[in-house]
Design goal:
- This protein has 369 residues and is mainly alpha-helical.
- It has one domain (2-362).
- The protein has helices spanning 2-27, 48-65, 78-100, 104-120, 142-159, 166-184, 188-205, 217-237, 244-251, 253-268, 281-287, 292-315, 318-348, and strands at 30-31, 43-44, 67-68, 72-73, 127-128, 136-137.
- A two-stranded antiparallel ribbon has the order 1-2. Strands 3-4 form a two-stranded antiparallel sheet.
- The longest helix is centred in the C-terminal third of the chain and has 31 residues, at 318-348.
- The two termini are 35 Å apart.
């Protein structure tokens, strides 16, 4: 049954994304190139509608026909309703921004309201457990921590949507990880949600990689970001293994590292962190000469490697979990040093006075891919 759900959501997403390209061209809803962009021609930016259609129409279909994925269960469980509420609300916010360019304060306010709503309805990060340390009950601080996680990761996912195939490919890998975790926990509703997300991302990906005929825009990236963040919270809450939360965060840590490192670097150099930039590690790889295909492929490999470490983390001993976290830190450190090395070689290859590559490599952020 699950492979049929995957196929249906992928086909819907593919078809609606294709229609959205026509609609974007007719209405002039295009992402125009600018000095902070990674693209050189106007590109339709309503492709996120395909992802939404693939997910929500398939979810509605499950509500009609029921879910049979190894066991009987109704699809409209509490967790699915939380996903629908948060996902739909943030998607509407993203769509309004794509069409009318909302002020950042308005976007963040709407995200905080939606995140606060699902927190009140029961989605919370309640306990943290680290290797060689006992569980730490968060108590009342669970509310602000969960709020920051949900809204923060939604925007991190949006920031990382900057080159062809990266966000949608990431969505497929994340969905696969969450499907495996949900299946192991015997949570068929969340497993089905992960399958629908994977199919929807894949259907869109055919129009976005290797050559981008459309972008998902904030409509798609904010939706995927908050839904994945919410799945981390709910899968951890429903797990009997206290290590699940750290494992799930580890599975999403490539984006967390890229964004966290970039933020700290900008603070160190006294840059305005609220100003658009192009200093994410993946953007610096592109500026160092790598193609979108090469960078996206590298990031997808890193996602899959960290997903494998996350699954191993759940089953490891306390000492084994510590070694897994140290291994992830080594991988990220090596990756970051490699980016700096590529930049240095790129600059060294330029003739003096060329001016094309300078220490300002990482200034600005693309509005699209």
């Amino acid at each position: 049954m699950l492979w049929i759900l995957f196929l249906v959501s992928a086909l819907i997403a593919y078809g609606v994304t294709k229609l959205s390209i026509v609609l974007s061209l007719r209405r002039g809803v295009l992402d125009l190139p600018n000095p902070r962009s990674s693209h050189s021609r106007p590109v339709p930016r309503m492709g996120g509608l395909g992802i939404l259609a693939g997910f929500f129409l398939s979810t509605a279909g499950l509500g009609v026909f029921g879910l049979r994925a190894g066991m009987d269960a109704g699809i409209f469980t509490r967790d699915v309703l939380l996903v629908v509420i948060a996902g739909a609300g943030v998607a509407i916010t993203g769509l309004c921004d794509d069409l009318y360019h909302l002020k950042p304060a308005t976007k963040f306010l709407m995200q905080f309201v939606l995140a606060g709503l699902v927190i009140v309805l029961g989605a919370r990060v309640e306990i943290l457990t680290f290797p060689l340390a006992g569980p730490l009950a968060l108590g009342v601080i669970a509310y602000p921590i969960t709020l920051l996680w949900l809204t923060g990761f939604a925007n991190i996912f949006n920031f990382m949507d900057g080159i062809n195939g990266l966000a949608a490919g990431t969505g497929v890998v994340y969905s696969g990880l969450f499907f495996l975790v949900a299946g192991w926990q015997n949570n068929p509703d969340l497993a089905a949600i992960a399958v629908l997300l994977a199919g929807s991302c894949l259907g869109f990906l055919f129009h976005n990689f290797p050559q981008a005929r459309t972008f998902m825009g904030d409509t798609g990236s904010l939706f995927l970001g908050i839904v994945f963040a919410l799945l981390v919270v709910r899968l951890a809450q429903r797990s009997h293994n206290p290590a699940s939360l750290v494992a799930l965060v580890l599975g999403t840590s490539v984006y967390l590292w890229d964004s966290g490192f970039t933020l700290l670097r900008r603070l160190k150099h006294g840059e305005n962190i609220f100003r658009a930039h192009r200093s994410h590690l993946y953007q610096r790889l592109v500026q160092a000469g790598w193609s979108h295909v090469k960078v996206t492929s590298l990031y997808l490999f890193l996602h899959m490697f960290l997903a494998a470490l996350a699954l191993a983390y759940v089953w490891s001993s306390e000492l084994g979990r510590l070694w897994i976290l140290l291994s992830a830190a080594v991988v990220f450190s090596g990756f970051t040093l490699a980016v700096y090395g590529l930049e240095r070689r790129r600059m060294a290859s330029k003739l003096p006075g060329d001016g094309k590559i300078s220490d300002s490599l990482s200034q600005g952020r693309p509005s699209g891919q």
